[in-house]
Specification:
single chain; 433 residues; alpha/beta; Kinesin; nine-stranded mixed beta sheet; three-stranded antiparallel beta sheet; 14 strands; binds adenosine-5'-triphosphate
Length: 433
């Protein structure tokens, strides 16, 4: 090689190195801008959520019974007799999907029929034809908030058989099947976790690393049961088999607004498959309870908690958010249930804890000096996830049957009260350590 060629090559290398340095600087600059934009996105996202209100109510109407009734569904709608299975007259008057109107005829003392109409307005009304994915689209922004470091509570409220579990979990088989129709029926819990996984993975390129831990508990007759526990095991779970533990669990509120439950199983969620296994195990433990306690699933509150801790090694930011998804116990009134003995005790416990939930929400909205969190296990457990530091959404699930009209009216009235509450501005949870 001549000296000239060598020199030429050296010059080319030098020029390429300079170009490479410039490109490196450019990339560094872009990465810095992306990180800044992520911080701005978080702030803007939160502002949008605040403008929408920190407490929102969505109404969802379950489809009617098909010609070949689902036996579980028929047996759940206890007050419906075949001759009363007619659908109520329901109208959805507005284009925006926020209004619902129920028409109901009653007989006067003279035996003539009068039709009365009852109208309600919510943040969103989902008709029976609404799919799980349409419903999730409306809550996905809220789920994102938990990843951004906020506390989020999503409740499903309504009478037994109105579609609370379907909304939250979907049909049980949907969490394990790859069949696309069944998969399409997945409820809010698996969809939330999947979305969180996807976002967390995207955020890795911006320096964020997340740890996700899940817990699933049942509150039955004011007692906490671990739905992920194995009899005789301690705090870690392999999510296989097992039945609900009979251990006594206490709620503890620690520093920095962190709530823990003693002796509870916490599962580190490393894959969507693990979430599906978690839901299957919780459902199994619940059904074990049901056969022993006569349809216990309808008589207990189920709380799925996902704790998301994130750290950013580049910007030194940290966030800790909690997402609670709660399938509340059936809300039917005592007079309707005709309960006696143990059933009466159960119904009283449910009614008390549901009215405590209402009281807590009103007290927060009224800025009362005393918020009665301690009046029920459910509100005490959710103390740090309800109030100024949180975002709350309530689904009011309702039945379309005319025979369920009175219960539907009660549910819609409760939900209207909740909807009239405005909870203070949410702030991020303080970071531990
Ligand atoms: N939107 C829907 N689309 C199709 N099926 C639904 C829908 N909502 C509910 N169902 C079906 O209706 C039945 C009762 O619903 P689900 O078990 O969710 O009621 P629930 O309110 O959770 O009752 P419980 O208080 O007993 O837990 C189930 O068989 C469920 O699959």
């Amino acid at each position: 090689m001549t000296e000239d060629t060598l020199k030429q090559r050296e010059e080319t290398i030098e020029s390429l190195e300079t170009k490479l340095d410039k490109t490196r600087d450019f990339i560094k600059n872009l990465e810095h801008r992306i990180r800044l934009e992520e911080t701005i996105r978080r702030r803007l996202h939160n502002t949008i959520q605040e403008l929408k209100g920190n407490i929102r109510v969505f109404c969802r109407v379950r489809p009617g019974l098909s010609s070949a009734p689902n036996s579980r569904l028929s047996s759940k709608i206890t007050s419906a007799r075949p001759d009363q299975d007619a659908l109520a007259t329901i109208k959805y008057p507005d284009q925006e999907g926020r209004e619902i109107e129920f028409a109901h005829s009653t007989e006067t003392a003279r035996g003539s029929q009068v039709e009365k109409s009852y109208g309600f307005v919510f943040d969103r009304v989902f008709q029976p034809s609404s799919t799980q994915s349409e419903v999730f689209e409306e809550i996905s922004q809220l789920v994102q908030s938990a990843l951004d470091g906020y506390n989020v509570c999503i409740f499903a409220y309504g009478q037994t058989g109105s579609g609370k579990t379907y909304t939250m979990e979907g049909p049980l088989k949907s969490t394990s099947s790859t069949d696309s129709k069944v998969h399409g029926e997945m409820g809010m819990i698996p969809r939330s976790v999947l979305q969180i996984y996807e976002h967390a993975r995207e955020l890795e390129s911006k320096g964020w690393k997340y740890k996700m831990e899940g817990q699933y508990v049942e509150i039955y007759n004011e007692t906490i049961h671990d739905l992920l526990g194995n009899e005789g095991s301690n705090s870690s779970s392999d999510l296989t088999g097992g039945s609900s533990s009979s251990k006594k669990h206490e709620i503890r509120h620690g520093p920095g607004g962190r709530t823990t439950i003693t002796d509870i199983t916490t599962v580190v969620l490393t894959s969507p498959e693990k979430v599906a296994a978690l839901i299957r195990k919780a459902a199994h433990n619940r059904s074990v309870g049901s056969t022993q306690m006569n349809e216990r699933s309808s008589r207990s509150h189920c709380v799925f908690t996902l704790r998301l801790s994130g750290t950013n090694s580049i910007t030194d930011e940290a966030s800790e958010g909690v997402l609670n998804l709660i399938d509340l116990a059936g809300s039917e009134r005592l007079s309707q249930s005709g309960a006696t003995g143990d059933r009466l005790k159960e119904t009283q416990a449910i009614n008390k804890s549901l009215s405590c939930l209402g009281d807590v929400i009103y007290a927060i909205a009224n800025k009362d000096p005393h918020i009665p969190y301690r009046n029920s296990k459910l509100t005490y457990l959710l103390q740090n996830s309800l109030g100024g530091n949180s975002k709350t959404l309530m689904f009011v699930n309702i039945s379309p049957l005319a025979s369920n009209f009175n219960e539907t009216l009660c549910s819609l009235r409760f939900a209207t009260k909740v909807n009239s509450c405005t909870i203070g501005t949410a702030t991020k949870r303080p970071i531990r350590g």
